[in-house]
């Protein structure tokens, strides 16, 4: 008895473990409140807003087209390959089926990276085509795997019998062999379709700008902070894959059942055959034609003037892009990145020819030093006059002659604190080591930002390469670790708004936004000094539409456009003309958004310290985090 | 029997290092029921598959009705095959199976319908048109396979161990059925089997094969009664094969004792093999036969008793309707015309023939 109960409990625990995350997601997708913590009642609004999101719907269609095309092509190739392998002599058969199995065992990331390298090596432009090729490639082994056992069950004699009765080899194959292996071919197709549908890693590496499948779209959306629409989308994706998997796994059984049933009843098999012979091909054709039209129309757009922009997530008002497209007729392909470090290899590999990128100060220095940047022709950017002289002066720290970059946003790093949880005035980094705030402190989870805090606190430079200084900073960080609630990046904002922590290290731009959401929050630049950062537009050397890029920079420097972006991003703008246009006086003269650079001492921009020093920083940071 | 319909000329075939057929020459006459008989691996199925077009010989020619068909694909040959495991198309009904070949030949619907009716009647399976192959017994499936083949009116029907998968009773029934079919259709049957009883029952001509060589060609009676070598004698029925010495014409020394026989022309004092069928041995009282011995084994087989008699250091296999208990002293007698003299193999090729698989 007890054993039986234990068995049940064990099974129950396993199922909880397996399905709790998905259940949570499904429940949240129906949650009427925007924060994860609260249940605000049942709603379907996230589903409806999901279907109204054109970008996501585009990604959905791309996903379906790619999955279907890849599955169909892989099924044809894979079935042919399985037949060829089946016809080989034993020795070769073992070798070849082994060889086709290896890509399945291979880590996806290896496959993704190697495919990307291959495409780059052969100068294939990353885009829809490369995703498709990649998907076909990784689907083929699955098709072979599901067709091969069916072939083994099929007697060669029936094929020979058909030949013997006068059938040509092709007729014999389609009339006799194919119906026998059809269940295997169909489940191979389904498997391939499912694999394609939810692939992320390989797609991520082989996709080009402007093409997104659902999984890469979700990934890029999630980077900006998870929106509830994403829960809805993930739920739908899960349900779709679940249904497909059930179909794949149940269909052989169904086959056996219908086969048993049609022993005596003839009609049912005819209905089944009509389904196979008519409905499925028609459906496939429809999607093909639809896809063809869709991509033909897209292709027409591609022949127009084009501009490929690579920017931080949530770092531009979408209306700005629309306005630009309307005014100039240039088609903007807009891609987003999460960190400078993710962006850099994409540019340096040359896999995609981006026209305009928005890196941070130290990364611009690094790109300039590695000869990745093109000089900007300032004759095309008369609006540069709107950019404050101070900021151009500051830019010289990473772009000494102001030849390669145009400032876009800037800000400081400081302390955000909740006045209801901290009753003393804060003006120093030292508060981050105060035992009182144990488990109420949020730190930035990136090397340079994290080390910037203790370095400044100790009175050293942000760009210190002195080992002793760095070790001191490391020790401080290690000492601080027990007090820290979490090392995060974007969540500082959400957690501070949600009163989940008392003190957080944050970018000034985020601080303005958080204050609007939660008036109890206060931002301060510590007296020891801090980081001043500037994100600027640069044009990579391999840009294919340099003049369009310059036209876009000029557009962004227009005061009205800069204002739109400021209101959307809430990060300080270096555009003094735009600042004058800000209506709310509290913001126009905000100490957070526009601190007087001359009154705040010891503000420094990050500099690129070279690979060797990067390694030192990373090593020390790993030591801190692993302790 | 009439003229040659099929002629195999110098056919050789090997897979890798293994030679399956070595310089095979064989002709088949019209309306003949010819059986290729031999142990598995003897090359009989390969011969059939070469004729069916599923294998190409390494060298040699296949002539069909005066035409060289060596390289003709199977779908262009005027013959049909009944496969060992039936090879029915499981996703088609019986009617669709039978109509398969006719549809390819673009026959009219009425013609196909009539043919299906006729063929099903011929194999005693009226009314099975809409059944699926899976729902039929082994024997029924085999008859459908035959029906599927014969509706195409082939000049030759090839049958590759068609009864191999059936049980004994069914096999015997099907044997009669095949003989009836052959007589009704009046076409050539080429039949492959390893079952000597099947071969003896149905064939006009038996071709005994071993290790890729033809051992003997002849009528069932001739093959049984006058095996040309020890392999044939051993493979067809049971027999006592004893190395002996041909003293002169009509006299052979078996186990040191001279026996009268009817064979001539082997020369004097030549070593030979002697075949004596167990049912041809007569057991008499001691001293009344040629060699005295003692019964050492006794098994009841239904129709007869099977005994072993130890005489002159040889265990004689004897079939008799009379029972002699173990330990009985007996004497062995063989009539001269029941002694079959066979030449000893001389060349290496012939030697190979004797190696059993």
From TrEMBL, chain A:
The chain crosses the membrane at residues 9-30, 59-85, 105-122, 128-149, 170-193, 230-250, 271-296. It comes from the Bacteria. It holds the Pfam family BPD_transp_1. Signal peptide: none annotated. The keyword Membrane applies. It is a multi-pass membrane protein. Residues 60-248 form the ABC transmembrane type-1 domain. Gene3D superfamilies: MetI-like, Periplasmic binding protein-like II. The keyword Iron does not apply. It is found in: Cell membrane. Keywords: Cell membrane, Membrane, Transmembrane, Transmembrane helix, Transport. Belongs to the binding-protein-dependent transport system permease family. CysTW subfamily. This is Extracellular solute-binding protein. It comes from Hominisplanchenecus faecis.
UniProtKB/TrEMBL annotation, chain B:
Its EC number is 7.6.2.11. Pfam families: ABC_tran, TOBE_2. The keyword Cell membrane applies. One of its GO terms (molecular function) is ATP binding. InterPro entries: AAA+_ATPase, ABC_SmlMolc_Importer, ABC_transporter-like_ATP-bd, ABC_transporter-like_CS, Mo/tungstate-bd_C_term_dom, P-loop_NTPase, PotA-like, PotA_ATP-bd. It catalyses: ATP + H2O + polyamine-[polyamine-binding protein]Side 1 = ADP + phosphate + polyamineSide 2 + [polyamine-binding protein]Side 1. SMART domains: AAA. Gene3D superfamilies: 2.40.50.100, P-loop containing nucleotide triphosphate hydrolases. It comes from the Bacteria. The keyword Iron does not apply. This is Spermidine/putrescine import ATP-binding protein PotA. It comes from Hominisplanchenecus faecis. The lineage of its organism: Bacteria, Bacillati, Bacillota, Clostridia, Lachnospirales.
């Amino acid at each position: 008895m007890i054993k039986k109960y234990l068995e049940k409990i064990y099974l129950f625990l396993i199922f909880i473990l397996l399905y709790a995350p998905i259940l949570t997601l499904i429940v949240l997708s129906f949650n009427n409140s925007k924060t994860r913590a609260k249940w605000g009642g049942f709603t379907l609004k996230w589903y409806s807003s999901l279907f109204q999101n054109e970008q996501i719907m585009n990604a959905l269609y791309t996903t379906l087209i790619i999955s279907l095309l890849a599955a169909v092509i892989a099924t044809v190739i894979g079935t042919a390959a399985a037949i060829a392998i089946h016809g080989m002599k034993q020795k070769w058969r073992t070798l070849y089926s082994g060889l086709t199995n290896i890509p399945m065992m291979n880590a996806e990331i290896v496959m993704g990276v190697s495919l990307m390298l291959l495409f780059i090596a052969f100068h294939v432009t990353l885009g829809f085509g490369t995703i498709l090729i990649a998907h076909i490639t990784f689907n083929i082994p699955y098709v072979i795997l599901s067709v091969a056992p069916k072939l083994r069950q099929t007697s060669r004699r029936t094929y020979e019998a058909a030949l013997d009765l006068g059938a040509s080899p092709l007729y014999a194959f389609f009339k006799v062999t194919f119906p026998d292996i059809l269940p295997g071919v169909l489940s191979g197709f389904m498997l391939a379709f499912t694999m394609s549908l939810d692939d992320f890693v390989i797609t991520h590496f082989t996709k080009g700008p402007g093409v997104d499948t659902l999984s890469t779209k979700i990934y890029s959306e999630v980077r900006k902070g998870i929106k509830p629409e994403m829960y809805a989308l993930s739920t739908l994706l899960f349900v779709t894959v679940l249904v497909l998997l059930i179909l794949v796994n149940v269909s052989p059984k169904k086959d056996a059942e219908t086969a048993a049933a049609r022993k005596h009843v003839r009609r049912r098999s005819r209905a089944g055959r009509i389904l196979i012979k008519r409905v499925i091909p028609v459906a496939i054709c429809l999607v093909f034609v639809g896809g063809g039209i869709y991509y033909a129309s897209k292709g027409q757009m591609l022949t127009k003037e084009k501009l490929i922009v690579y920017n931080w997530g949530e770092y531009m008002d979408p209306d700005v892009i629309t306005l630009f497209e309307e005014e100039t007729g240039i088609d903007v392909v807009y891609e987003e990145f999460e960190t400078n470090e993710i962006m850099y290899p994409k540019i340096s590999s040359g896999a995609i020819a981006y026209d305009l990128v928005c890196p941070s100060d130290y990364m611009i220095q690094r790109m300039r030093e590695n000869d990745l940047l093109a000089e900007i022709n300032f004759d095309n950017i008369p609006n540069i006059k709107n950019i404050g002289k101070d900021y151009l002066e500051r830019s010289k720290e990473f772009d000494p002659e102001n030849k390669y970059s145009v400032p876009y946003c800037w800000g400081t790093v400081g302390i955000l604190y909740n006045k209801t949880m901290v009753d003393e005035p804060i003006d120093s980094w030292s508060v981050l080591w105060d035992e009182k705030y144990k488990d109420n402190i949020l730190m930035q989870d990136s090397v340079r930002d994290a080390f910037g805090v203790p370095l400044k606190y100790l009175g050293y430079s942000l760009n210190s390469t002195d080992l002793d200084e760095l070790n001191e900073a490391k020790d401080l960080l290690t000492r601080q670790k027990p007090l820290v609630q979490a090392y995060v990046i974007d969540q500082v904002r959400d957690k501070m708004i949600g009163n989940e922590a008392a003190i957080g290290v944050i970018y000034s731009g985020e601080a303005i936004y958080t204050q609007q959401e939660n008036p109890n929050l206060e931002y301060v630049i510590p007296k020891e000094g801090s980081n001043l950062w500037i994100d600027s537009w640069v044009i990579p050397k391999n840009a294919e539409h340099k003049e369009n890029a310059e036209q876009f920079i000029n557009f962004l420097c227009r005061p009205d456009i800069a204002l739109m972006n400021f209101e959307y991003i809430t990060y300080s703008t270096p555009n003094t003309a735009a600042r004058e246009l800000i209506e709310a006086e509290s913001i126009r003269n905000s100490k957070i958004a526009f601190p007087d650079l001359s009154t705040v001492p010891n503000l420094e921009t990050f500099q690129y310290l070279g690979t060797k020093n990067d390694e030192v920083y990373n090593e020390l940071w790993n030591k801190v985090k692993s302790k | 029997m009439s003229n040659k319909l099929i002629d195999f000329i110098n056919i050789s075939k090997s897979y890798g290092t293994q030679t399956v057929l070595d310089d095979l020459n064989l002709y088949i006459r019209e309306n003949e029921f010819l059986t290729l008989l031999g142990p598995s691996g003897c090359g009989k199925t390969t011969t059939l598959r070469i004729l069916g077009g599923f294998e190409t010989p390494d060298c040699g020619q296949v002539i069909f009705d005066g035409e060289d068909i060596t390289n003709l694909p199977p779908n262009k040959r005027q013959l049909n095959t009944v496969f060992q495991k039936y090879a029915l198309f499981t996703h088609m009904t019986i009617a669709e199976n039978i109509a398969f070949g006719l549809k390819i030949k673009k026959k009219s619907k009425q013609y196909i319908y009539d043919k299906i009716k006729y063929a099903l009647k011929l194999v005693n399976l009226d009314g099975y048109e809409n059944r699926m192959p899976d729902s039929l017994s082994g024997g029924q499936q085999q008859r459908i396979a035959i029906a599927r083949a014969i509706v195409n009116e082939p000049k030759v029907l090839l049958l590759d161990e068609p009864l191999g998968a059936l049980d004994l009773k069914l096999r015997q029934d099907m044997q009669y059925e095949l003989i009836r079919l052959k007589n009704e259709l009046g076409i050539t049957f080429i039949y492959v089997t390893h079952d000597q009883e099947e071969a003896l029952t149905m064939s006009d001509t038996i071709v005994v094969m071993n290790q890729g060589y033809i051992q003997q060609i002849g009528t069932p009676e001739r093959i049984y009664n006058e095996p040309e070598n020890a392999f044939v004698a051993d493979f067809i029925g049971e027999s006592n094969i004893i190395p002996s010495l041909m003293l002169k014409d009509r006299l052979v020394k078996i186990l040191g004792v001279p026996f009268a026989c009817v064979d001539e022309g082997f020369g004097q004092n030549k070593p030979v093999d002697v075949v004596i069928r167990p049912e041809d041995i007569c057991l008499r009282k001691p001293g009344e036969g040629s060699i005295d011995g003692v019964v050492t084994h006794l098994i009841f087989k239904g129709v007869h008793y099977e005994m072993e008699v130890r005489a002159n250091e040889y265990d004689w296999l004897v079939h008799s309707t009379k029972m002699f208990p173990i330990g009985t002293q007996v004497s062995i007698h063989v009539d001269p015309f029941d002694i079959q003299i066979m030449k000893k193999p001389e060349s290496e090729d012939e030697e190979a023939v004797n190696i059993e698989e």
